[in-house]
Amino acid sequence: MTAAALKPQPPRKTEPAAPAEEVLYAARRAIYPQSVHGRLRTTKWVLLAITLGIYYFLPFVRWDRGPDAPNQAVLIDFPTRRFYFFFIEIWPQEFYYLAGLLILAALILFLMNAVAGRVWCGYLCPQTVWTDLFLAVERLIEGDRREHMLADAGPWTLEKVAHKTLKHSVWLLLAWWTGGAWVLYFADAPSLVWDLATFQAPTVAYASIAVLTFTTYTLAGHMREQVCTYMCPWPRIQAALTDEYALNVTYLYDRGEPRGSVKKAAVARAAGEKAGDCIDCNQCVNVCPTGVDIRHGMQLECIQCGLCIDACNNVMDKISRPRGLIAYESEKNLEARAAGLPPVRRIVRPRTVLYTALIALVGGIMIYSLADRSTEGLAAIHDRNPVFVRLSDGALRNAYTVRLINKKLEPRRFVLTLDGLPDARIAVVGTESGPEGDVLTVGPDQTLEARVLVTHAGKLDAGASIPVFFRIRDLTSGETAIAKDHFIGP
Amino acid sequence: MSTAHDSHDKGVDAATGTPTTGHEWDGIQELNNPLPRWWLWTFYATILWAIGYWVVYPAWPLVSSFTPGLSGWHSRSAVVEQLADLQKLRAVSSAKLANVPLDEIEKNPELLNLARAEGRVAFADNCAPCHGAGGGGAKGFPNLNDDDWLWGGTLEQISATITHGARSGDDEGHQGNMMAFGPILTKAEISDVADYVRSLSGTGPKDLPSVQKGAAVFAANCAACHGEDGKGNQELGSKNLTDGIWLYGGDKATIVQTITNGRGGVMPAWTSRLSPTTIKALTVYVHTLGGGQ
């Protein structure tokens, strides 16, 4: 509230709103972002190349896991319910790793926001990246802002039709490739590519590609900034999470105002009056992919890609004024400058420290649990009907369903024992007890369910419930897993 | 626009120049921004989609039927198709189970798993109402987990019992009955023999005077079926009275009732209702509950 009160707020719309007439639905205002060169634009190109490169080519990266497992580095294998990520293999019950990743992602997003506002939106969000790519295609075919606007306003010529056809074809091709890359994460990529090409792939693959082709084409080609303005929840959440120290793409109005031409400014300065650096050239507006005027201050539509910074810096260079009229700046510094105080930079603040600590904590827990992840497991379920059985010789028997888990990619032999009930005999249905005890073989990367009968001949108190522990031990490596249950008496 | 809206003053937001709706909460005004036009198109598209859906899929109820839709799709036929697909998918494993002799199944872990999985489902569908979800039994319905079998606990015997039942009306089913001794024995004799039966398994005391008297009654009336030692006879389905496991209850009143009125619980014959493969799977499942012999 204080910052807003300090800051002069020029009206957002240059002409006063038409008073009485209420419009229910507004058509989209066409935006023709002009191309721009500069440090931030280059950064965006590099990030675009990296992120899209990862997305399109990662499925083809191979990772040798041995003969019994797929050799794709990143694979979401639904039929066998496994997720492979390089050296990591996740089982469905280990879904918490994904939950951890999502928590990390959210915290990193918060941290990014606390440090520099919507950097995610401006540089990394898929919507931004794909829109950037589609805009580049558009400029390549239909020309830059001016040329494109002229063509759109002009009559339909053969050239215009050819341009539009070509543009939409390339867009559709890119969208189709986007959908195609997506399905490759769910099956062996090279063989799926072959199956897709020879029309032998499953219907769901073609359907997924079709859906993603449609959404990519629509969202990156046609919806663009409207996704950010109308659909995305992050701008709303982000506004509630930000503070006055966060760096945002900001027009330094104190330096820029009053606006005027270079000549007028020179005259004013010569006369000792204040003259702003903004020459009202509108370059910042022309390059903006969401069509806002950054000089109106922070706005919901602004994705803070910083292209206006590049555009303005180029202009400042030309008129020999210092760069940074539009810059990554904090609300706090804006106030400080207005009050004539030195600028404050505080990256270390309670919220950034808290976010960093939380990221370190969650990341640490995940790394620890991953490093400590056991490759065997055991679960036991007591029979519920009947809870116990009286045998004809008077002995008591409890029956359990146990499940052995072998997460290694080789078959393993486990010996099953029971602790906690010294006189009890155990028997595994379907296996004979050998010299090594009750040995169960679990296939590579598999589980095995077994029915275990525990018989106790001694006397038990009425209503007894004795804790017992099933234990499996790998006969080769000696690794063990334990499952607790109870032996229940009459 | 309702009248409630109109009673507020609509204005123009000073900061943005946007008209307001006149709604205000704690000083926060609602701006009356127009909806994007594509939103309207999306809305029309959903209407078109709905109309298309009516044409393609079953949609409108008629007096005694419904509009079937051009595609001919129906949720019931879809289920039938999916079940057929499932049967096809299972055909290989079902064939394996059908072709392997009953006593070979448990020696093969893969087949054992298959049979137990199929048996568990068949048991839940067909047997659980009487025998309990896990075969724990109830009064009059045997516990299938213990090692006390009325008609025998080998694979062959279990299979025969499931196939033909007991007192089921099936000619090949088990026929034996516990007859009613009420008209034959006096009440005192029944009381004595009940004390004797209870003493056999240690359920009741052995040193009562009635136990001696009951032994004579037992030898004269009961031993023909239950054996002189009271261990029963699986050919006749006569119960082993010496093991402390009771079908109807081991307290004296229940035993007196059993002797006086007789018992004759029915196990239905499943041969006409279940396929031979399912009965095979059920047999293995029951056999591996724990009491199989």
Explained architecture:
- The complex is a heterodimer of chains A (490) and B (293).
- Chain A is of the alpha+beta class and 490 residues long.
- Among the domains of chain A are: 28-93 and 119-228, no CATH class; 376-488, Immunoglobulins (Immunoglobulin-like, Sandwich), CATH 2.60.40.10.
- Chain A has 17 helices and 15 strands.
- Chain A has helices at residues 2-6, 39-57, 96-116, 119-124, 126-142, 145-153, 158-184, 189-197, 203-223, 225-231, 234-241, 253-256, 262-270, 283-286, 307-318, 331-338, 350-371, and strands spanning 25-26, 74-77, 82-85, 88-90, 247-251, 326-330, 376-382, 389-390, 396-406, 412-419, 425-428, 438-442, 446-456, 465-474, 480-488.
- In chain A, the strands form 4 sheets. In chain A, strands 7, 8, 9, 11 and 13 form a 5-stranded antiparallel beta sheet that branches.
- In chain A, strand 8 and strand 9 form a beta hairpin.
- In chain A, helix 2 packs across helix 5 (126-142), helix 5 (126-142) runs antiparallel to helix 7 (158-184) and helix 5 packs across helix 9.
- The longest helix of chain A has 27 residues, at 158-184.
- Chain B is mainly α and 293 residues long.
- Chain B is built from 12 helices and 3 strands.
- Chain B has helices at residues 3-6, 37-56, 75-99, 102-105, 109-126, 128-131, 155-164, 187-200, 209-221, 223-226, 252-261, 276-287; strands spanning 20-25, 28-31, 35-36.
- In chain B, strands 1-2 form a two-stranded antiparallel ribbon.
- The N and C termini of chain B lie far apart (81 Å).
- The chains are: A alpha+beta (490), B mainly alpha (293).
- Chain A binds chain B through residues 9, 11-13, 16-17, 19, 22-28, 223, 226, 230, 383-387, 389-394, 397, 399, 429-431, 449, 451, 453, and chain B through 12, 15-19, 32-40, 106, 109, 112-113, 116, 132-137, 143, 145-148, 240, 243-245, 288-291.
- Strand 1 (25-26) of chain A pairs parallel with strand 3 (35-36) of chain B, so a sheet runs across the interface.
